[in-house]
Design goal:
The chain has 353 residues and is an alpha/beta fold. Strand 5, helix 5 and strand 6 form a beta-alpha-beta unit. This is Oxidoreductase.
Amino acid sequence: MATSKNNVTRLGIISFAHSHINAYIESIKNFADAQIVAAWDEDQERGRTQCGKNGIHFEPDLDALLKRDDIDAVFVTSPTNQHAAHVLTAAQAGKAVLLQKPMALTLEDCDAIIAAVKQYDIKFSMCYQMRADPVNQKMKQLIDEGAVGNIAIMRRRHAIGALLSPDFARPGNWHIDPVQNMGMFMDDASHAADWFYWMLGHPTSVIAEIDNIVTSTAPDDNGVAIFRFGKKEIGILLNSSTMLAAEATTEIYGDKGTIVQNYGDLVSSGLPRPTGATALKIYRTGAQEWESFNFPADTPHGSRIRAVPRPLIEYLQGRADPLATAEDGRVCIEMILGAYQAAREGRRVYFSH
């Protein structure tokens, strides 16, 4: 159990590079059973600034941060190509690790992370926000219960408009550096890839189109991957970094019904909802109308990100499972790398499971 004797989980931060850590900090400020003690950042100016804003001690030396006996676990929110090294260093220090997506840029780095978690017997979880979203949890429950029968097609969009923003599409932003983050499909479609794996299990194959279509500042700006799964289901993953607005986020089509999720990603959450809007609905065979579930349609996207820390603390304190294991994180990277390969080579790529 990664908790101090006073039943308060004490947290450290390895890098403020990924902005989601700021949302996690805001949530944890409201927790009675967790606190952020100290942070390190490879960019000392950024680290000192963020620590100053949040009343957190800045530790200029990473080893010193990890030697502190008042830190039980660390968020690793550094650039993606640094994840494996930072997880290994934290694991060697006996700290539990909460790792921002994507897990890594290579399967070799994923395997190194898995090995470190096992060797040093630490608690570990990926920080996948879709698994912490009540609407997604309800969809998983419905699928597991067979509410729409045998599934034929599932479509999930995960989209942002970041590459249309000069503040994001700027020189020096690690998110659009192929060395540090590979591409936007790796960076952002990893959310939806994990969602598909969570819903349907291991994919069997993928075909894909990933490219720069309307911009040229990142390695890629839009992509579609079509996965096949163990029962022949088709999963359509739509990812865009140049989208301005949308509505239906998820569509699930089975032989006994249909599930539709609205307003479940950033581009569908930024505009006012129409009167009577619903976040999640289901049509069942023989019904005369849609059945809506009691989820608010006006949930801002930031709320989904801020929801991540609570289940992580529950896990660290021994009351819940991890959001996603290291092995889960590897599957997601295998899916994304497979999609890139399929797009690059113009062929179907098969997964070995």
